[in-house]
Amino acid sequence: MSNKVIHAIYNDDDVLMDAVKQTRAAHHHIEEIYTPFPVHGLDKAMGLAPTRIAICAFIYGLIGLSIYTALMNYIMIQDWPQDIGGKPSFSYIDNMPAFVPIMFEGTVFFAAHLMVITFYMRSKLWPFKQAENPDVRTTDDHFLMEVGIHGNEEELVSFFTNTGAVEVKVVEKH
Amino acid sequence: MYTFSSKLKTFSFVLMILGAIGIGIGFMAAPKTIEDVEKLLADSHHDHEAAHVEKVAPHAEDAHVVADTVKAAVAHVADSTHAEAHTTTVDSTAHAVDTAAVVAVAEAPAHADNHDAHTKADAHSHDDHKAHLEHVLHQLQNKPWAALYVACIFFMLISVGVLAFYAIQYAAQAGWSPILFRVMEGITAYLLPGSIIFFVLLVAAGMHWNHLFVWMDPEVVNPESVKFDKLIFLKKGWLSVGRFLGTAAIILIVWNYVRFKFVKNSIAQDSAEDNAPYKRNFKLAAFFLVFFIVSESIMSWDWIMSVDPHWYSTLFGWYVFASFFVSGITVIAMITLYLKSKGYLEHVNTSHIHDLAKFMFGISIFWTYLWFSQFMLIWYSNIPEEVTYFVTRIEHYKLPFFGMLALNFIFPLLILINTDFKRLTWIVVMAGIVILFGHYIDFFNMIMPATVGDQWFIGIPEIGALMFFLGLFIFVVFTALTKAPLVPKGNPLIEESKHFHY
Do A113 and A149 belong to one domain? Predict the structure, then answer.
């Protein structure tokens, strides 16, 4: 069983969007799309499941908030209470306004950093990773749509030529 | 073209009539003499013994000169009692605070005595009692005025907030929003009647028909008088009735003029050959936004902050702005959804609603940021003349003061953080009602503590005033919406706005 795919290359994001809609309407399976920049609405046009990273970010934020609350409680209330500006540190709730900026920063720090790390892990990105894009031009100004071939090679080639692709290639995928 | 449904019109009239009755009852029910007050207080004293002690703090305000010092002393005493409870843990700290408390009490010995006398059951002298009654009388007489004032300024500033949002859309040449311009123009129509009524209220204060602004009393800047207040005396260059009304008139006239020109150009653009009216509005928006941010600051000092003439906060203008800006955006979203539910505005889609909801969410967070920035610095530095502002609110307004944080911050944060929720009508409307109520409470908290003290209550005068201005608002806004087509078809960005999807 050969593992052939079509590489249809476009040089404009609007043309790509229309092509994606046509491809979906014709029930061809889009494996992947490589773009030089994020194209608005492409995920919806491709029919990808909505991202769940926002849920992760919310949970990470709560974790950050809890950690920094515990941290400030330990540092400022339990371990070494101090009297700052006539406000002795005897109870967390009475001194909370002073800790709010730290709690806020902790929330943002955890949400942002863990969200980025999660995104990298989900996208299988790490340092020294070999690039996956099949054509170097997708990092410059070209858009590439990869579509699986299931014994309908000629039909697909003519289909994609008609969608405005500047180049249609049949590639053996490993 | 929109037609004002008779149902909604009747509803707005019912609100206005009921509201006017409520306002009337509020004015008639206000006590006329100190005997009335004595009776009122006697009734409530029997109910809760503890309330008596609490009434002492505002009592001292009679002689506005020293009120702040006393409050600071009281606050200090409270602090030190708190610290004493922990003496076993850190001796030296408690000692330091003790000394501070002693100094503070020594600074205002008479008032500390006063405080003690009051706490001991009925040991106070006859004069004190009479002064106290007179003070409560003034607060209760202020109450219907303050209720009217809060509702009036709240609804007027909603239309000002919408005007600022509208000007930002023009200045930024935003492509998503022109489809909503007629809704915004409709809401800003309330600015004219709103500001006329508001100006009448300011004149009423200037004529001494009420005592919303203590600094307006000529006695407080008269060095011979017992009421003489040095701090107000030092500020009298700014705090004078003539300057106050003059500034108010200029600000309101410019705002109304700008609003009039905006709408005129917007209508002219519908049938214009070129984009000249649009360009005029672009320039007008740029001018207005510069004028607005300065005039908005000045108006917030004058119309809101000056009810507490001893107190000042440098970011108060921004804080007030965030409050009515988010209210204005919320009203745009709610009226848009209402019109959409009636079959108008067919080009408005969930992406437009999503954007408005994002603003509701974002400006709610912004409001909280400013609220907290103001609170934390004052709380931390604990300077008596500043901290009294929050001491009064936490002592006597605990529920509205902290409740408003839940309404204006926690609720919008949790409900509007989800992307999909921002596109659901019922979520946006529910969040909108909570935000509007929360920001009414915010304005309530700004005005009431200085004008009615611990005599506040959300009763007939407050709800009546709110209903009256809501009814008037609905009537004026929806009448204005019938005056022009709901789609500004000549706007050069209208096609982009119609096809706004993401």
Answer: no
C-beta atoms of B90 and A87 within 8 A: no
- Note whether A32 and A58 are same-domain residues: no
Q: Is the ipTM of this complex over 0.85?
A: no
**pLDDT of res. B38:** 78
Domain ranges of chain B: 6-30+131-483, 34-124
Q: For residue B115, what is the enclosing H or E element?
A: helix B109-119
Chain pair A-B, CB pairs under 8 angstroms: 42
pLDDT digits (tens, 9 = 90+) for A127-165: 898 888 888 999 999 999 999 888 788 888 889 888 989
pLDDT at B44: 66
Q: Is residue A135 part of a domain?
A: no
A28, A61: one domain: no
Q: Which residues of A touch B376 (CB under 8 A)?
A: 97-98, 100-101
Tokens of B234: 């030092």
Task: Classify strands A87-88 and A83-84 as parallel, antiparallel or unpaired.
Answer: antiparallel
In angstroms, the CA B438 to CA B402 distance is 11
User: What pTM, to 2 d.p., does this model score?
Assistant: 0.82
A85·B79 Cβ contact <8 A: no
B102–A contact, CB cutoff 8 A: no
Core vs surface per residue B291-307: b (16+ CB within 10 A) or e? ebeebbbebbbbbbbbb
**How close B93 gets to chain A, by Cα (Å)?**
7
- Is the same domain home to A115 and A150? no
User: How far is B373 from chain A, CA to nearest CA, in Å?
Assistant: 10
Chain B neighbors of A58, CB-CB under 8 A? 417
Of B83, B90, B502, the CB nearest to A40: B502
Q: Tell whether the model's pLDDT for residue B113 goes beyond 50.
A: no
> Given CA atoms B217, B222, B225, B229 in this order, what sign does their dihedral have?
positive
Q: Are residues A62 and A112 in the same domain?
A: yes
**B128: which residues sit within 8 A by CB, 6+ positions away?**
B59, B114, B117, B118
Do A154 and A109 share a structural domain?
no
CA-wise closest residue to B244 among B194, B210, B207, B209 = B207
B90 — contact with chain A (CB < 8 Å)? yes
Shortest Cα–Cα distance, B75 to chain A (Å): 12
Q: Do residues B374 and B315 make contact, with C-beta atoms less than 8 angstroms apart?
A: yes
Nearest-angstrom CA–CA distance, B305 and B322: 15
**Range of the structural domain that residue A70 is part of:** 53-122
The string of pLDDT tens digits covering residues B166-186 is 999 999 999 999 999 999 999
Using a CB–CB cutoff of 8 Å, tell me whether A21 touches chain B.
no
